[in-house]
């Protein structure tokens, strides 16, 4: 082992006693963060009661789209941490953080229509993971002057991880480095296990009992179950292959081609086969080429040309409806299987998120058809439990009539004509309801600009002509802001 755990525990004790700065430990429930927390716990527990005064906050961010098995493990662990810390007289408090409603995955993907994340448009990480933890750390550091952030990062995991850790090297305090995020300028970073290998981590976790009452062998079993061949040998020397390099994360993640860990869990344990519909949903509806499923306009109606084609923006209304229907169907299947095992804990999308999606569709996108309640009722066979919206002056019969008229007036572009008319009416209704007319004409003009073209071909011709007229085409370089 690069540095013995006894040496690290001694170092942690020294750092803990050196000042009054509160500590924050990032905890994901995985092996590295578990080892880091266990080392800190052991160090502080070895101190006399009167010296355990400095607060330690354990934070874990639940993106609400985590692998359900891992999410349940983390939830149980956080409960045990709080109970055991109180019983053992330790000033340790665990916090489960979640993204704000407007930052949640389904609100952005299905509500706003953001396309599934891709390397050039990775909108999810900051919204789901970073934002909530950064807010917590920022508030704590500002209220206390400074804070120390303990991270379970190790060198040698990947070149990208090593580059991140290099940013924390030029320390002005022994073993502590300033955080490079300007929002966290008062936060010091401390990685206690940076010199350890994966084998070192497992050796420590398996040989040292967990102090807050979970069984590290169960964690080992989770990693083993997430390995395709289900083999995780106990490390006996450097030539023995290690278990524990599995990567857990969001089941909706499209940064990887396959969710190998979830697939392995399903393959290796029949009690986890209830997750198959979740994996199927991800593979069929998210990890796909989706350009044809997105509007040829960006979110704000702008046209962007790249390599002679329009950069497509948010998902179309039809595809968002399909995604919501299939997600609810998946939730129904998973909950049925969950109930068969005597539990009823799995919720892929909450009513709160459905209500926000509904608001975005009706109020911000002008989709006054209000499809969320009917989609929900169609899937579950019960009335939608959300709040009543202000009744639209147009009912389903009126909207069908509007569709028919649009088809008669312009059969080749009836869908665009229908959406234009519907959106203009929606804007008018919203103005009447709010009694605010100050920007009414501006909103109507935005709708007219958004639906100014009968089809993508006309829009592309206009964009190319405009680009030539601007002699240089600044838009041509705009490839990353796919929905902005």
Structural commentary:
This protein is an alpha/beta fold and 484 residues long. The protein folds into two domains: 5-225, Rossmann fold (3-Layer(aba) Sandwich), CATH 3.40.50.620; 291-465, no CATH class. 48% of the residues lie in helices and 6% in strands. It contains 17 helices and eight strands. It has helices at 5-17, 31-45, 68-87, 105-112, 124-144, 159-166, 198-207, 216-225, 260-268, 276-286, 317-340, 351-364, 371-380, 396-409, 414-434, 440-450, 456-469, and strands at 23-26, 56-61, 92-97, 147-150, 177-178, 187-190, 305-306, 309-310. The strands form two sheets. Strands 3-2-1-4-6-5 form a six-stranded mixed β-sheet, sandwiched between helices. A two-stranded antiparallel ribbon has the order 7-8. A hairpin with an 8-residue loop joins strand 5 and strand 6 (187-190). Helix 2 (31-45) crosses helix 7, helix 10 packs antiparallel against helix 11 (317-340) and helix 14 packs across helix 15. The longest helix is centred in the last third of the chain and has 24 residues, at 317-340. The radius of gyration is 26 Å and the shape is elongated.
């Amino acid at each position: 082992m690069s540095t013995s755990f006894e040496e690290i525990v001694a170092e942690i004790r020294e750092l803990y006693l050196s000042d009054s700065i509160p500590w924050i430990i990032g905890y994901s429930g995985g092996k590295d963060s578990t080892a880091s927390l266990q080392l800190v716990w052991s160090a502080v527990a070895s101190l006399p009661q009167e010296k355990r005064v400095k607060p330690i906050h354990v934070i874990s961010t639940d993106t609400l789209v985590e692998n359900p098995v891992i999410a349940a493990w983390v939830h149980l662990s956080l409960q045990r941490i709080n109970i055991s810390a109180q019983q053992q007289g330790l000033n340790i408090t665990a916090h489960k953080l979640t993204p704000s409603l407007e930052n949640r995955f389904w609100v952005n993907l299905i509500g706003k229509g953001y396309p599934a994340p891709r390397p050039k448009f990775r909108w999810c990480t900051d919204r789901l993971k970073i934002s909530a933890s950064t807010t917590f750390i920022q508030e704590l550091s500002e209220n206390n002057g400074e804070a120390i952030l303990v991270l379970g990062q190790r060198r040698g995991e990947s070149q990208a991880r090593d580059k991140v850790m290099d940013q924390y090297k030029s320390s002005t305090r022994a073993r502590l480095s300033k955080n490079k995020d300007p929002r966290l300028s008062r936060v010091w970073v401390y990685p206690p296990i940076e010199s350890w290998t994966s084998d070192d981590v497992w050796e420590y976790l398996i040989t040292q009992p967990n102090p807050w009452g979970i069984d590290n062998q169960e964690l080992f079993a989770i990693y083993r179950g997430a390995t395709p061949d289900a083999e995780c040998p106990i490390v006996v020397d450097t030539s023995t292959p290690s278990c524990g390099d599995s990567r857990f994360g969001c089941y909706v993640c499209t940064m990887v081609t396959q969710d190998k860990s979830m697939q392995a869990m399903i393959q290796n344990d029949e009690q986890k086969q209830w997750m198959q519909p979740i994996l199927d949903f991800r593979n069929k509806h998210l990890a796909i080429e989706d350009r044809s499923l997105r509007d040829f306009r960006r979110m704000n109606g702008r046209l962007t040309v790249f390599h002679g084609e329009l950069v497509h923006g948010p998902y179309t209304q039809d595809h968002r409806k399909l995604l919501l229907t299939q997600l609810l169907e998946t939730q129904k299947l998973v909950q049925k299987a969950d109930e068969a095992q005597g539990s009823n804990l799995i919720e892929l999308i909450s009513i709160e998120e459905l209500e926000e999606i509904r608001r975005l569709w009706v109020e911000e996108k002008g989709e006054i058809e209000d499809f969320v309640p009917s989609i929900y009722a169609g899937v579950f066979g019960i009335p939608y439990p959300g709040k009543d919206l202000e009744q639209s002056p147009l009912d389903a019969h009126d909207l069908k009539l509007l569709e028919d008229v649009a088809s008669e007036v312009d059969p080749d572009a009836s869908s665009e004509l229908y959406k234009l008319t519907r959106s203009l009416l929606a804007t008018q209704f919203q103005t009447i309801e709010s009694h605010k007319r100050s920007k009414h004409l501006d909103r109507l003009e935005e709708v007219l600009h958004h639906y100014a073209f009968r089809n993508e071909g006309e829009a592309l011709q206009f964009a190319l002509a405009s680009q030539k007229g601007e002699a240089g085409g600044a838009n041509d370089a705009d490839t990353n802001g796919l929905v902005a």
